[in-house]
Amino acid sequence: MKSMDKIVSLCKRRGFLFQSSEIYGGIQGFWDYGPLGVELKRNVKEAWWTDMIRGHNDLITPAGAPSTFEMVGLDSTIIMHPQVWKCSGHYDLFHDHMVDCRESKKRYRFDQVRGRWCEHRDQKIFVSTLAEVEQELDEVRRRAMKFFKLRPKNADELTVGNESLTLDQLDDTHSVLAPDAKSLDTLTEPREFNLMFKTTIGALGGEEDAAFLRPETAQGIFVNFKNVVDSSRVKIPFGIGQIGKSFRNEITPRNFTFRSREFEQMEIEFFCRPDQSQEWYRYWRDRRLAWYKTLGLSDESLIMREHHVEELAHYSVGTADIEYAFPFLPPGEYGELEGIAHRGDFDLRSHMEGKLDPNSPPGEPMKVELNEHGKPKHRGSGKDLSYRDEVTNEKFVPHVIEPSAGADRGVLAFLCEAYTEDEAPDENGEMQVRTVMKLHPRLAPVKAAVFPLVKKDGMPEVAQEIYGELKQSMNVFYDEKGAVGRRYRRQDEAGTPYCITVDTDTLTDKTVTIRDRDTLEQTRVKIDEVAAVIHTLLR
Ligand code: ATP
């Protein structure tokens, strides 16, 4: 059975992920990638960069696309001019609702604390918890028993509701037992909390020197739009892609790396003519979903959730989230992997004219937001960020489609999908449960492992030669310690797709075996052909 506990423990045991600053007790919402994890994450980012940016052929029209198009890359800074965040809307609008607990002094995100209604005699209370979904029911029951001072033998006097709800789904919080409280009704009214990390530039450090760590990589692309157009001669339609760190001061980081305070994004801003934007929106939405599937996420665990009309910003024609059935969610619930948004001309126009008013009347061009004195609330750069079509000589502000993916959430989904328990024969030929990470070969941290069957008869020398040759073009692992069955198991847990074993036959017929991680089939291959065969298999 796949469970989050097992996945988290494998990640730590095998060096995929560690808690940041663990020797000091850790720091909530920050994670480090170990030797296997860093390779996996690099492979995810590399696959994205190759498939979306560098490997994109702008001479042919990809299936489903309205026309050919160009893609280029960018690497902008984490700290930018503070005005960027004023015009993007993050300064005023990028917040979550939080509640404070007057008893425990802890702070929670309103929409993330879960719980259930519990009833004992004529008292009905809402018992909340931050426990993972798998433990939620038990934890709610345990806390309710304690609250009502019930002994185990009186457990049937307690009724626990079937439905798991979050605090924001309740009408009021007066009957809530907060996650770390002993008495009822200790939560404050929800308040807004800006998610941007603040820092100061320079030695003086006054309020005017305040700067922010970017909460998304996208704005670095918008503010460089003109630079890219002028320097690289790209023509609309084209996209700019960027991979980089983003920071959000999440109130309740949780669910392993899913909601972290420091994470990486892989974002594309795709610029097109306004009259073609809907077609491009549909193209990117479908293409991004297909990308996850080609790298191994199953049809059943992925969904595309189109936002309802009421959820959309009125300048947007559509937004869709690609969501994955993470094991920490209740059955039937999905968590966002990537959002694909039609952003109209909101961002470029805001950086030109000043922050646009998201409440401008629908159907009219958006107006610059004004302060109480009737002056622009946040002034734009005043630079012309429009585009001139060389053929038609038309000038317009391009519309933007934004596929915005999280690298860490992608890695987590690939890890969850890959985790498999099946049965395989052990050293003595007896069937045993085996844990195997069925990662797509493009993503696997180690592509192949090379083993001499035993540490004698010249086998290590042959194995080391094969290792040396493969090492030049891929991440390979060499292991000569212990029973070969155990070495296979270790590679299965690391997700290594192929194991190459040098055995007694190698010495006479110059062949080795290649073992397939998923089918467990072993095929004999000539030593001189090993590299070519492995390369073909990995493709
Ligand atoms: P959520 O609703 O889960 O907070 P969001 O809608 O705010 O996410 P976006 O602003 O659309 O997220 O960011 C784009 C992508 O960046 C998300 O789909 C996700 O993959 C990633 N991402 C956003 N916030 C985090 C985070 N705190 N930790 C890890 N990844 C994140």
From TrEMBL:
One GO term of the biological process aspect: diadenosine tetraphosphate biosynthetic process
Reactions the enzyme catalyzes: tRNA(Gly) + glycine + ATP = glycyl-tRNA(Gly) + AMP + diphosphate
Function: Catalyzes the attachment of glycine to tRNA(Gly).
Pfam families attached to this UniProt entry: HGTP_anticodon, tRNA-synt_2b
NCBIfam families: glyS_dimeric (TIGR00389), PRK04173.1 (NF003211)
E.C. code: 6.1.1.14
Organism (species): Stieleria varia
Binding site for substrate: R109, E216, F263, E264, Q265, M266, E267, E402, P403, S404, A405, G406
Region of interest called Disordered, as start-end residue ranges on this chain: 353-385
Sequence ranges assigned to domain Aminoacyl-transfer RNA synthetases class-II family profile in this UniProt record: 139-445
Origin superkingdom: Bacteria
Name by which UniProt lists this protein: Glycine--tRNA ligase
First-tier enzyme category under EC: ligase
Entry similarity comment: Belongs to the class-II aminoacyl-tRNA synthetase family.
Keyword ATP-binding: yes
Subunit note: Homodimer.
Location of the protein in the cell: Cytoplasm
Record: residues binding ATP: 248-250, 258-263, 336-337, 406-409
Keywords: Aminoacyl-tRNA synthetase, ATP-binding, Cytoplasm, Ligase, Nucleotide-binding, Protein biosynthesis
GO CC terms: cytoplasm; extracellular exosome; microvesicle
GO MF term set: ATP binding; bis(5'-nucleosyl)-tetraphosphatase (asymmetrical) activity; glycine-tRNA ligase activity
